Amino acid sequence: MVGGANLRKAREANVSRAGESACFYSDFNNNNNNKNKDASLATPPLIAGEEVKEIIFGSLLGDAKIELPPRGLNARFGFTQSLDKKEYFLSVLNSLGEICSGKYREMSYLDKRTGKTYANLNFWSKSLPMLNEFYFSFYSDLDFSNVHSKGKKKVKIVPLDLSFLTPLALAHWIMQDGARGTSKGLYLCTDSFTYVEVNRLSLYLINKYDIKCSIHKAGKNYRIYILVQSLETIKFIILPLHSEGFDI
Length: 248
Fold this sequence. Notes:
Blueprint: H1 5-15, E1 21-27, H2 50-61, E2 65-67, E3 76-82, H3 86-95, E4 103-111, E5 116-124, H4 132-138, E6 139-143, E7 152-156, H5 167-177, E8 178-180, E9 186-188, H6 195-209, E10 213-218, E11 221-226, H7 231-238
Antiparallel strand pairs: 1-4, 2-3, 3-5, 4-5, 6-7, 8-9, 9-11, 10-11
Helix pairs in contact: 2-5
């Protein structure tokens, strides 16, 4: 999560933490055990349901990522959560069963900055044509030719079209990036986006859902702060999803 070129580089550095190692693989959906890993190559292109697209959209505003290999034809969706959010992690994996094999990985890594070992959970979707649209909407080239590195790198951006920011997408975004503030309001940690992007998200929440919010500076980054009086509005919006583990 970053706002500005230097912080974007810091975000990339945070991803490549030293000492990372896989502990084990698990299969969340036993019915998928005997599926050919390359079966998707022989089947027609997947047309995912709206719910799947909304979860992907909300998660890409949050902790998820999409990658398209240099020589690959199709993108894949990746999702990581800390071990203490395993119940939520598995609910996302289950909800995205149309595009995932059901397998996930538990990893531990040593954070050299703190000297502590942490554990997280991760899964990748299948590489699918329907994910390419999300990839090109959420990622843009960042030109480093005049900085320290050569060429261009991909950086996550906020799409111009926010129509997929539905109540379901909002619920997942809050679950991943939400943090309670000292004033009892709710922060959305939009650190990886520019001020212009954060402002556009904020205005969308105001105009679409009548959520009262403002933008707060967090170091060199920007975060959306949802005022405490709008928390009831948020709860009402995502109330139908509460049974799936959503809470604020």
